[in-house]
Design brief:
The structure holds two protein chains of two kinds.
Chain A: E1 5-13, E2 18-25, E3 31-36, H1 42-49, E4 57-62, E5 65-66, E6 78-81, H2 93-100, H3 109-118, H4 132-144, E7 150-154, H5 162-176, E8 182-186, H6 190-196, E9 199-204, E10 207-213, H7 214-220, E11 222-226, E12 237-241, E13 244-247, H8 250-259, E14 264-266, H9 271-280, H10 288-292
Helix pairs in contact in A: 3-4
Chain B: H1 15-28, H2 41-48, H3 52-64, E1 68-71, E2 75-78, H4 83-107, H5 112-130
Antiparallel strand pairs in B: 1-2
The chains are: A alpha/beta, B mainly alpha.
Chain lengths: 293, 131
């Protein structure tokens, strides 16, 4: 079983839109970042993997097991860090650990203590008395220590201060070093995606619009600063802002620039720009699969 | 350990190739001596903000070309390289940077003769500055 998680024709009727159909295989040993606008269904996708949201149709498999079936053996292989927790408020970190650890057969207590130390988490304070950042760090320590093969991280850095964010990146990197573990992460932070992601999965209005290898994105798009003013649309042009022209076919654009005898410089696109292009593209234009070739 | 690698996103040279060439140059120049451990595939990916798919490919190529060796469970280490290879890599690193300068000069419509003149002048100036 090479794919830790597989979605087959998964749909879910939501209030305002239909989620899916989603077809998706997670690659083992890799970090996949899910990006999308607010409300595009990223968290729903994670909750479905945990069987917290049940699909209307289709099947979700974790390590070969159907998560909707009676057999719940998949649960020991997956740990989920939600954006918000319910019921943690009256307990201290120590109490939460005692409540959670027994459910996870691979729980690593030594690792938990190390994480608590590295992230500066206090274990004797009630959860509702902790700052949002400290709550997040405690939840992360409680998640990583489950020592599972698959981690689902929903906005893990949203409340962290800069040093803690840096430390978390290191923790995630080390956690992945064994090579046979996988992570699905949702994040709105370009830095998280830049440093951690191998694949980027784009969600738009409950649909998976495409999955891209991160380092190939910069081959897909180019940005050019053109000295002369030109009103004509260039080959490959998908967006323009004054003298800056964005292309999704660099070869064609450069040839066109050359033929029109225009003076130009390459101006690299950042990951944030590329994600914005991916999220803004019209459905008709977005031929996600073409980009994968 | 963080490797001193600079990636150029403007360049048409694939990212994996840029990383590979620079690590080879670091090994050839002795900056990375024999037996030096290299960062893990994942740590290098994080530091350079590339995917682990890219760094894994780099490490595979380095090992295939005899620059590194991987010890199961311990990591990747720099191998001792022989003088011929060292010289070849050095020359390649230098000529690559010449190539970039030449491309810039051609962008300004300099002829080969102009470029040669300017190179000589720069070399002289550099020698004077160092005196």
């Amino acid at each position: 079983m090479n794919n830790p998680a597989v979605f087959t024709n998964v749909t879910k009727d939501m209030n305002d839109f239909t989620f899916g159909p989603i077809n998706f295989s997670l690659e083992d040993g890799m970090i996949t970042a899910i990006v999308g606008r607010n409300g595009s269904g990223k968290s729903t996708l994670l909750k479905m993997l945990m069987n917290l949201v049940k699909p209307t149709d289709g099947m979700i498999q974790l390590f070969g097991d159907d998560v909707g079936s009676e057999n719940e053996s998949w649960k020991e292989h997956i740990a989920y860090q939600p954006q918000t927790t319910v019921g943690y408020d009256p307990f201290t970190g120590n109490q939460l650990k005692q409540l959670i650890a027994p459910y996870y057969p691979h729980w690593d207590d030594e690792y938990f203590s190390a994480l608590v130390k590295r992230l500066n988490v206090t274990l004797n304070k009630r959860f509702n008395k902790m700052s949002q950042g400290n709550q997040q760090k405690l939840i992360l320590a409680l998640t990583f220590a489950r020592n599972t093969r698959l981690l689902l991280l929903d906005e893990p850095t949203s409340f962290l201060d800069i040093p803690s964010k840096k430390e978390l990146m290191k923790i995630i990197t080390e956690w992945m070093d064994s090579g046979d573990r996988s992570i699905i992460i949702t994040s709105h932070q370009a830095e998280d995606i830049n440093k951690l992601a191998d694949y980027i999965a784009v969600m738009k209005e409950g649909q998976l619009a495409g999955t891209y290898e991160k380092d190939l994105l910069s081959d897909m798009y180019g940005q050019y600063w053109v000295k002369e003013e030109t009103s004509e649309r260039l080959a490959g042009e998908i967006a323009r802002d004054g003298q800056i022209i964005v292309s999704n076919n660099c070869e064609a654009t450069e040839q066109d620039l050359h033929e029109r005898q225009l003076t130009w410089e390459i101006s690299p696109l950042g990951l944030e720009d590329m994600i914005t292009i991916l999220l803004d593209q019209q459905e008709g234009m977005d031929n996600g699969n073409n980009f994968n070739s | 350990m963080r490797l001193p690698i600079q990636l150029s996103k403007q360049s048409r040279e694939p990212i994996y190739h840029q990383i590979e060439t620079q690590i080879k140059a670091l090994i050839a120049s002795g900056t990375l001596a024999a037996d030096t451990p290299l960062p893990s595939i994942r740590a290098l990916a994080k530091d350079l903000e590339v995917s682990a798919i890219t760094t894994r490919r780099v490490y595979q190529n380095l090992e295939q070309d005899g620059f590194t060796t991987t010890v199961q469970g311990k990591g990747t280490f720099v191998k001792a390289i022989n003088k011929d290879v060292k010289k070849e890599i050095e020359e390649k690193a230098i000529s690559e940077s010449f190539k970039r300068s030449i491309q810039i000069a051609r962008g300004y419509n300099y002829t080969d003769e102009d470029i040669k003149q300017l190179f000589k002048l720069t070399l002289q100036k550099e020698a004077n500055d160092n005196e």
